[in-house]
Amino acid sequence: MADWWQLSVGTLKGVGPAKSRQLSKLNIFTVGDVINMVPVSDKYQDRRNFKKIEQLQDSCLELFSATVVSSSDLRTKNRLTLSKLLVQDDTGQAEIVWFNQKYRARQYKVGMKVVIAGKVKRQYNMIQIHNAQVDSVNNDGPKFYGCIVPVYPATESISQDFLRNLVKQALDGCTVISETIPVEIINKFVLISRKEALINLHFPQDWDMLNKARQRLVFEELFFLQCLLLITKKKHQACNMGIKHAIDGRLMQSALGQLPYQLTADQLIALQEIKLDMESKMSMQRLLQGDVGSGKTVVAGLALIKTVENGFQGAIMAPTEILAEQHYHTLSRLFACLGIRFALLTGGLAKTARSELLKSIACGSVDIIIGTHAILQQDVVFKNLGLVVTDEQHRFGVRQRALFQNKGISPDVLVMTATPIPRTMTLTVYGDLDVSQIKSLPPGRKPVRTLKYSTSRRKDIYDGVLRQLAQGRQAFVVCPLVEDSELIRAESATTMYSLLTENYLMGVPCGLLHGKLSQQQKDKVMRDFCDGTIKVLISTTVIEVGINVPNATIMIIEGADRFGLAQLHQLRGRVGRGEHESYCVLITDSDNEDTRQRLDYLAKYNDGFILAEKDLLIRGPGQLFGTRQHGLPDLRIADIIKDTAILIKARQAAKDILNDPQQIKQVLPGIALHFGNNYAAILNS
Ligand code: ADP
Ligand code: MG
After folding, report:
1. Rounded CA separation 674/680 (Å)
2. Ligand 1 pocket test: which of 297, 332, 580, 582 has the largest number of ligand atoms within 8 Å of its C-beta?
3. Ligand of minimum distance to the alpha carbon of 285
């Protein structure tokens, strides 16, 4: 049977070299690929009931059989070709019309019996169907009538009936379709068999069976995905017998005791979960998720103190230099009185300073190292790394996470992200991590008021900024996202800087920040903004992540239509961090419907989780997080947004079965079948 699945698609009747080539463009090479093709979920055609012509309803998709009466091609006044086919049954006549498809109607001979599917137009007592699908029923070969038929994502050169025919042959030639899911799971979740499911996915007996078939196959795919993720996680844990940190001692107690505020309930719970992981002998693999401004930094900082207390070094890695610097300042200030040695390691470090620092890291004379990707470089050797915190995980791939694990003896790993990730995504993209969430913001925060204006209101907008400045506040201005080139972005920010400083904000101390500035220049601008010397910071999106200036109360986003929802939310999160009422002003002239929807969502919701769900709906999961980039396989039939309920069941099933390590062998073939031998091989190693 396996052989049949692996035979070349050319084995099937009707597939010569030319068709093989066309099929290869649809990624179909073998008989198995044909069977694994997934019909478009909402396009099945119900061809079980034929209507009479007199029953056809206006604007409905209808199916009927009839006999050809005449066919003709006409030239219209505006030089179109109008191809017409007149058909009839015992209740009336209908006209099938094609534009600019010469001789289309002539393919059908008078007296031929045909079946017609298409959207009906009734006008002047005449029934017309434009671009209908017309099939002759006199032809040889299997007929796809009297049943529900699939519609495949086909190319122009391959017809639906051709594909249906292939699938039918492939299924018919398949003597056995063996089960892949362990039988106890089939029973527990009341799934139909794989064989029944595949047959009904292509040629459903009825709608109910189609539904069951889809459920079963989605379950199967997600089940094996979850097995893949859970086995990966277990392997991590097994080969990463990690560091067993002790319960909190004096250093942790003084760190907690001297914080300038009380931790929120969510922060405490997250910290507790992290501590338990660190105190276990397994290595921690945890994701700390929290909306912008929810206070993740202090939680991560306390975890780092804990590893230091246990005699280890801690590292925290940020995606940008500015953010690394900010973490450095925040943490070294927050824990200044504890005698902990902090160091900042970024790419901008001078050669001698860098080699000095590397020596200190190697001999253990610094405790907490804060940096960018620079920490990942080969020459950075830690004396004894106990905990790694990576910030803004979604910018790093799974592979980099693995790389970090090779530095030192299986340190604990904490991944932080401010991009709220819908639950379905945490279960898939981050399925190998445990998750802690900080849901509520620190007390006293007011929601940021979000307003939308056109550029014609610029004067009013910046007058509003001036009023805030007069009250001692500060403002951000983010420049439109131009092309994906730092140089062009820098130019656009520079232009905006001139426009504002020479007009609307004349006389106000403004700073300009973009990726083309030198490290020293950036440092200076950021420092000046943080300490209030600069009142308005005009910048590209380099400030998107993490920057914390509680006195800033206005975020102006020029060209707001250029930004995605998640990014806008991140930008808005830069304000509303202090006790003052804050504003986010979106400037755009776009009247595009999608844009309007996106900006309206932003104005309506302050909760990053809700926005992330909306963003997923608008853009689809692939674009938001780039699952590919995370080293995850593509899904063929499951849709992690629509199939959440099944996803949760499949995860439970995978957990249940993998509780018994003996069962791993049982699911490996399924993983190989779905995601290829590469994945299965990794797990087998
Ligand atoms: P993010 O989760 O975006 O990294 P930060 O860690 O930058 O958020 O915290 C945002 C702001 O909230 C900081 O100014 C921080 O000092 C403050 N903060 C954090 N936790 C608390 C708390 N429990 N009470 C009051 N303010 C807090
Ligand atoms: Mg541990």
Report:
1. 10
2. 297
3. 2
Which residues is 137 bridged to in the sheet? Answer: none
Residues in the ligand 1 pocket, defined by CB under 6 Å: 261-264, 267, 290, 292-298, 418, 442, 546, 548, 550, 577
Q: Beta strand pairing status for 45-46 and 148-149?
A: antiparallel
Please tell me the distance between residue 277's alpha carbon and the centre of ligand 2 in angstroms. Answer: 5
- What phi, psi does 350 have (nearest 5°)? -65, 155
CB-facing half-sphere around the CA of 4: CA atoms within 13 A: 13
Residues found in the chain: 685
Q: pLDDT digits over 341-368, tens only?
A: 999 998 878 899 999 999 999 999 999 9
Strand order in the sheet with 342-345: 342-345, 368-371, 313-317, 385-390, 412-417, 285-290, 434-438
Minimum CA distance residue for ligand 1 atom 19? 295
Query: Could you identify the atom of ligand 1 that is nearest to the CA of residue 297?
Result: 6
pLDDT tens column, 53-87: 999 999 988 889 899 999 988 888 878 888 999 99
Q: How far apart are CA 134 and CA 256, in angstroms?
A: 75
Question: Where does the pLDDT of residue 630 fall: very low under 50, low under 70, confident under 90, or very high at 90 and above?
Answer: very low
Q: What is the pLDDT of residues 550-574, one digit of tens each?
A: 899 999 999 898 888 878 888 898 8
Stretch 476-488: mean pLDDT = 73
Give the span between the Cα atoms of 466 and 505, in whole angstroms.
Answer: 7
* Single pTM value for the model: 0.65
- Going from the Cα of 163 to the center of ligand 1, the distance in angstroms, rounded, reads 57
656-679 burial code (b ≥16 CB/10 A, e <16)? ebbeeeebbeebbebbbbbbeeeb
Residue 430 C-alpha to ligand 2 middle, in angstroms?
Answer: 19
128-177 residue pLDDT tens: 998 888 877 765 555 787 889 898 886 667 888 889 999 999 999 988 88
Backbone angles phi, psi at 631, to 5 degrees: 75, 20
Distance 574 CA to ligand 1 centre (A): 11
With CA atoms as reference, report the closest residue to 279 among 243, 235, 234.
243
CB 591 within 8 A of CB 611: no
Residue from 510, 540, 507 nearest 525 by CA: 510
How many whole angstroms from 185 Cα to the centroid of ligand 1?
45
Region of residue 587 (left: phi > 0; alpha: psi -120 to 50; beta: else): beta
Inter-residue contact 331 to 325 (CB < 8 Å): no
Distant-in-sequence, close-in-space partners of 409: CB < 8 Å, separation ≥ 6: 243, 384, 385
* Rounded Cα–Cα distance for residues 579 and 638 (Å): 45
The ligand placed nearest to the CA atom of residue 550 is: 1
